[in-house]
Design goal:
Layout (H helix, E strand, L loop, with lengths): L2 H14 L6 H5 L2 H4 L7 H18 L1 H17 L6 H22 L1 H5 L5 H19 L12 H11 L9 H11 L4 H30 L5 H26 L5 H18 L4
Helix pairs in contact: 1-4, 1-12, 4-11, 4-12, 5-6, 6-9, 6-11, 8-10, 8-13, 9-10, 10-11
Length: 269
C-alpha cells in the first residue's frame, strides 16, 4: 500500500467516523474512483483504533467522572444522587440492542445489505429523518438524560447496522426526537461510540491475530496517526458548529452523497 492511499483512507475514516454522514458510505466509493488494492485487516484495525482513541482522549474528563460514578454505584449499590453512575449504566444498557442485533444479523449486514443501492438510499432516508428531528431540538442537557431517553437511543443505534445509516447520525437523531439538545444528543452519541468502539475493536483485533497476515507498518502507523488527528479535530469542530447552528448542512450533504451512490448503483456514470 502506498502512503497516498493510507493517508486518503485515514482522512476519510477520521473525518466521517463521528459526523452524522456515514463513514461506510464514503469508503465504499473508493474502489469506484481508484484502482487501489485492498488495504488489509491490519490497516482497518489501526484506523478504527486511532479514531476510538481520539474520542476517548477528547472525552477523557467525562470518562473519568462517569467511571468514578460507576464504581461508586457498585460500592454503594444504589444510583440515587449519583447521575454519573446512572449515566454509566445507561450507556452500557443502550449498547445491548446493537450488540444483540449485530450477532444475529452479522451475515446479512456483511453481505446482502452492503450494496451501493442500500447504502445510497440509507444515506438519503436517514438524512431526511435527521432533518425532521433537527427542526425542533429539545433543551435537555446531558445531565438530564434518563432511562427512557437512553433506551430509545440505544434501540435506534441498532438501525446503524444497516450500511449507510451512520451510527452517530441515527443516535443523534434519536436523541433529538427524545428531547435532547443538539449538543447533548451528540455527546451521548460519542459516549456510546466509546463502548461500541471498544467491543468492535476487540473483535477486529482477534480477527487480525487469527488471520496472521503481514503488516505494512509504515502505512499502518501513518494511517493511524492521520486518522487520530482528523477524528479529534472533527469531533471538536462538530461540537462547536452544532452549539450555534443546525445540522442542515449535513442533511444536504447526505442527500447529495446518496444520489451519487445511487448513480453508481444504477450505472448512470
Amino acid at each position: 500500500m502506498e502512503l497516498t492511499q493510507a493517508i486518503v483512507l485515514a482522512l476519510i475514516q477520521g473525518i466521517t467516523e463521528f459526523l452524522p454522514i456515514s463513514s461506510t458510505a464514503h469508503l465504499i466509493l473508493v474502489p469506484f474512483v481508484t484502482d487501489w488494492p485492498d488495504q488489509g485487516l491490519a490497516f482497518d484495525v489501526a484506523l478504527n483504533t486511532a479514531t476510538w482513541l481520539a474520542v476517548v482522549i477528547y472525552f477523557r474528563r467525562d470518562i473519568a467522572d462517569i467511571s468514578m460514578g460507576f464504581f461508586k454505584s457498585l460500592a454503594e449499590r444504589r444510583l440515587e444522587g449519583n447521575h454519573n453512575g446512572a449515566l454509566a449504566w445507561m450507556t452500557l444498557a443502550a449498547t445491548i440492542p446493537v450488540g444483540i442485533a449485530g450477532l444475529l444479523a452479522h451475515d446479512l449486514v456483511a453481505g446482502p445489505l452492503r450494496s451501493l443501492e442500500i447504502i445510497g438510499w440509507s444515506s438519503i432516508v436517514w438524512g431526511l429523518v435527521l432533518w425532521a428531528a433537527d427542526r425542533r431540538p429539545g433543551n435537555k442537557d446531558i445531565g438530564r438524560i434518563g432511562w427512557k431517553e437512553a433506551i430509545f437511543v440505544g434501540l435506534a443505534q441498532a438501525i446503524a447496522l444497516i450500511p449507510g445509516t451512520s451510527r452517530s447520525g441515527i443516535t443523534m437523531t434519536a436523541g433529538l426526537f427524545a428531547g435532547l439538545s443538539r449538543t447533548a444528543a451528540a455527546r451521548f452519541s460519542f459516549l456510546l461510540a466509546i463502548v461500541v468502539g471498544a467491543l468492535a475493536g476487540g473483535k477486529e483485533g482477534l480477527d487480525m491475530i487469527q488471520a496472521g497476515e503481514a503488516t505494512q507498518w509504515t502505512a499502518v502507523l501513518t494511517g493511524g496517526a492521520v486518522a487520530f488527528v482528523s477524528a479529534y479535530l472533527a469531533i471538536h469542530y462538530f461540537l462547536k458548529l452544532i452549539s450555534r447552528s443546525s445540522m442542515a448542512s449535513f442533511v444536504v450533504y447526505r442527500v447529495i452523497l446518496g444520489v451519487v451512490l445511487l448513480a453508481f448503483a444504477y450505472k448512470l456514470f
